[in-house]
Design a protein that fits this description.
The protein has 351 residues and is of the alpha/beta class. The protein is built from 9 helices and 8 strands.
């Protein structure tokens, strides 16, 4: 009996041992991770990103706001003083340091931002701020003042080889007195490369026959609609005039308004300092011509187009918003291009 018992114990022990080993036979061992060898690629050298110098865009709201703020007659001594206060306050907000320059019958405003190249001649951007009696002068010439202030905002802090100068002339309506006083300081003209003068840049008309032309123009009138911006320059300084012709690459007499929503530019090269075309001498660019300094007049052609010239009806509501914005952008484009290049602005004889 005892032998039987021992025999049974031995059998049970053998089964237990075999069973414990058998569990290892079915154990699922984790498969070794498959590591795929991926060749490491050296990143290709990327071309250096070139900084694109984009001409800043004008603000229609800011332009029109200036005209609204100047919506009053600027004829009397007090009215012109209030106007100077507005202009100088706006310039100071933008970081400029305007100076008042008195002459016998008025006060000009002058400011400048030095360029990085002292040898490069300056570019002046200017407009008159006075009006005739009984006219609030929205187009004549709050529009020009507004564009100069927009140039001050957009280009005042941008370093350029040329110095940027700003001027606001008084007493233009009394016979160009402010600009004549300005150019009488001959020392300042020595480093002046060219002047951009704006006088009425906010009115457009789109009906046939609304645009007139003075006699003796050196070009054939392109249209009887007043939907272009005229730029008048002396033939002795054609590169200055060409800066506007190239402001949106529209030929000087083409009237393609579809490009960049800018109005077409009609450039008028005037020979003999306007002696044969006296209508081209009616604004503040003329005194520069007679001092031998290149200057252009940027204009919507004044009474040759607008029925509100020198009238009480020259109010902000008559400003053509789209045309005015485009005209301001053209001035900013041309000014920016001129400031960047130290090119000679005198007309060169063909080689």
């Amino acid at each position: 009996m005892r032998k039987w018992i021992w025999l049974m114990l031995l059998v049970l022990m053998a089964v237990a041992v075999v069973g414990s080993r058998g569990s290892t036979f079915f154990e699922q061992r984790s498969s070794p991770a498959i590591v795929q060898s991926i060749p490491v690629k050296t990143p290709e050298a990327q071309p250096e990103s070139k900084e694109v110098d984009i001409t800043p865009q004008v603000s229609t709201d800011k332009l029109l706001n200036h005209i609204q703020k100047l919506n009053f007659q600027r004829y009397t001594t007090k009215e012109r003083s209030l106007t100077r206060t507005y202009i100088t306050t706006e310039l100071k907000k933008l970081g400029w340091k305007p100076k008042l320059e008195k002459f016998f019958d008025g006060v000009n405003i002058f400011a400048e931002r030095p360029g990085t190249n002292k040898a490069a001649k300056a570019i002046l951007v200017a407009a008159h701020y006075d009006t005739v009696a009984f006219s609030p002068g929205a187009d004549d010439n709050a529009s020009g003042v507004a564009v100069v202030l927009e140039v001050a905002r957009l280009l005042g802090s941008r370093p350029t080889p040329r110095t940027l100068q700003l001027a606001f002339f008084d007493r233009e309506e009394a016979g160009l007195l402010g600009s004549q006083a300005f150019v009488s300081k001959t020392a300042r003209l020595q480093n002046l490369g060219g002047a951009i003068v704006m006088d009425m840049v906010g009115y457009a008309c789109y009906t046939a026959g609304c645009q007139k032309y003075p006699a003796g123009l050196p070009v054939t009138p392109p249209s009887d609609k007043g939907d272009f911006l005229a730029v008048v320059g002396d033939t002795e300084h054609l590169p200055l005039l060409n800066a506007f012709q190239n402001s949106h690459n529209i030929p000087s007499i083409a009237l393609n308004k579809q490009k960049a929503n800018l109005p077409a530019v009609l450039t008028l090269p005037i020979p003999f300092k306007g002696l044969l075309t006296p209508d081209t001498l009616r604004s503040d660019h003329a005194p520069f011509w007679y001092q031998g300094v290149g200057a252009v007049l940027v204009t919507d052609t004044a009474n040759l187009r607008t029925p509100h010239y020198h009238k009480p009806s020259d109010v902000p509501a008559t400003i053509e918003r789209s045309f005015f914005t485009g005209a301001a952008q053209i001035v900013v484009n041309a000014t920016s291009a001129l400031l960047k290049k130290n090119q000679v602005l005198e007309t060169q004889a063909p080689s």
